[in-house]
Amino acid sequence: MEELFNSTSNISWDVFLTKVIDLGTSFGSRIIGAVIIFIIGRWLIRKINRLVVTVLEKRHAEASLASFVKSLVKITLNFLLLIVIISKLGIEASSFIAIFASAGVAIGMALSGTLQNFAGGVMILLFKPFKVGDFIEAQGQSGTVKEIQIFNTIVSTADNKIIIIPNGGLSTGITKNYSKEATRRVDWEFGIAYGDNYDKAKAVLEKLIAADQRILKDPAYFIALTSLGASSVNIVVRAWVNSADYWGVFFDMNENVYKTFAQEGINIPFPQMDVHLIQK
């Protein structure tokens, strides 16, 4: 009886050891395969990253865009490599992906506004409606673009205030870019009194425009009587200047017109009302 027990015990141990060896061999081969995939995958990722950098440099991509694209490509490739390694080790990849997707949905719902700003930043970096140094007006704010970040755009106002504008609204709303074109049109409207000589006023305006070297000859300026107001005859003046000269020309012309009209005896009227008393 004892011999039978010993024989059965030896067989059980032999079977157990055989299974352990088989399992170790099988799992070991998977580990070796996963290591080989990891090494080759990391080599491929480095190659692809260098290729992406080369393409971005040839296209002269902005630093912020290049950094974002490189990070996105690197994260995506590493995630794919992780999925392949998990599959090689025999772990069910579909369950892992499902868990990751569920977590992504939950995080996305919690950070919906942030993701919108992120997407807006990507759109701005790709389509370039404005760039650093441009003067823009958007979301009720105006100023010079100092920095375009992934989530926000930093704008410096004329009085040196820093405004942080979320990219989500910038990418979907209306944005005025005053620096996109090399030239801008300056518009004025000057009023003269009823009874004053319109031709004389027009000649004075033409003289002032000709004297300002910052006003471009082409396109030509435009002067016309635009309306007969309640207390003034209104003259519109339009002239083209380089974008950098816009405000200087605008303010100087206002000052020069005020002084010259007074010297030439041309009245600049103000709203007034005549009251007639009838005595009975």
What does this entry look like structurally?
There is one protein chain. With 280 residues, the protein is α+β, with helices and mostly antiparallel strands. Helix content is 55%, strand content 19%. The protein contains seven helices and eight strands. The chain has helices spanning 2-58, 63-88, 93-110, 112-127, 167-172, 198-211, 246-263, and strands at residues 135-138, 141-148, 152-156, 162-166, 175-177, 183-192, 222-228, 233-242. Strand 3 (152-156) and strand 4 form a beta hairpin. The mean pLDDT is 80.
Salient structural properties:
7 helices; 3-stranded antiparallel beta sheet; alpha+beta; 55% helix
SSE blueprint:
Elements: H1 2-58, H2 63-88, H3 93-110, H4 112-127, E1 135-138, E2 141-148, E3 152-156, E4 162-166, H5 167-172, E5 175-177, E6 183-192, H6 198-211, E7 222-228, E8 233-242, H7 246-263
Helix pairs in contact: 1-2, 6-7
